[in-house]
Amino acid sequence: MEKKRRIESFLELVLSVAVLTGLDQWTKLLAVEHLKNQADIPLIPNVLSLHYLENRGAAFGIFQNQKVFLVLLTSAILLGVCYILWKLPEGKRFLPMKILCFLITAGGIGNLIDRLRLNYVVDFIYFSLIDFPVFNVADIYVTVSMVLLFVLVLFYYKDEEFQFLKWKSSKEQE
Question: Which family is it part of (predicted)?
Fold first, then answer.
């Protein structure tokens, strides 16, 4: 039964992440086709616009031209999220965490694909009201999920509910 549940969870992850990553990549393709070398397209004047940008760094422009570091960092984070998903108990209680992990994984893979394929990440959403850095759909997945995960960890889950993440010695596993 345990093995069947793990396989079902893995298939849920693959399908969900594929759909979400596909949506991210599709929006980036549209941005390249319709925004590259074009004037910004205001969606809400002086608030939100579509603005094409090739980001060779990470969030807020940090780590510019550090592709190897960013690929390794993203890979490490994705492995960590996969570990959490593997250990995550079944049930409705942990469903919010599971969904957020799917979104984080999809966002990480979406930007990783860009970095590996293009050597930069396609960004195209600009929130000009507060002069926020240009971002993309994958960034939304990761940022919103991390904020919600932070809130869940602080206010929804109890410390003892994270026992599933503790490393067990070979003696404890027996």
Answer: Belongs to the peptidase A8 family.
Q: How far apart are CA 157 and CA 115, in angstroms?
A: 35
Helices (H), 36-136: 67-87, 95-118
Distance CA 157, CA 6 (A): 22
Q: How far apart are the first and last CA of the chain?
A: 19
Helix, strand, coil distribution of the chain in percent, nearest 5? 70, 10, 20
Lowest mean pLDDT among 19-23, 82-86, 94-98, 131-135: 82-86
Task: Please confirm, yes or no, whether 159 is among the known catalytic residues.
Answer: no
Q: Is 114 part of the annotated catalytic residue set?
A: no
Measured in degrees and rounded to the nearest 5, phi and psi for residue 47 equal -130, -55
**Set 24, 114, 139, 159: catalytic member:** 139
Q: What b/e readout covers 41-55, taking b as 16+ CB neighbours within 10 angstroms?
A: eeeeeeebbbbbbeb
Per-residue pLDDT at 65? 81
**pLDDT (0 to 100) of residue 172:** 56
Compute the distance between CA of residue 153 and CA of residue 72 in angstroms, rounded to an integer: 26
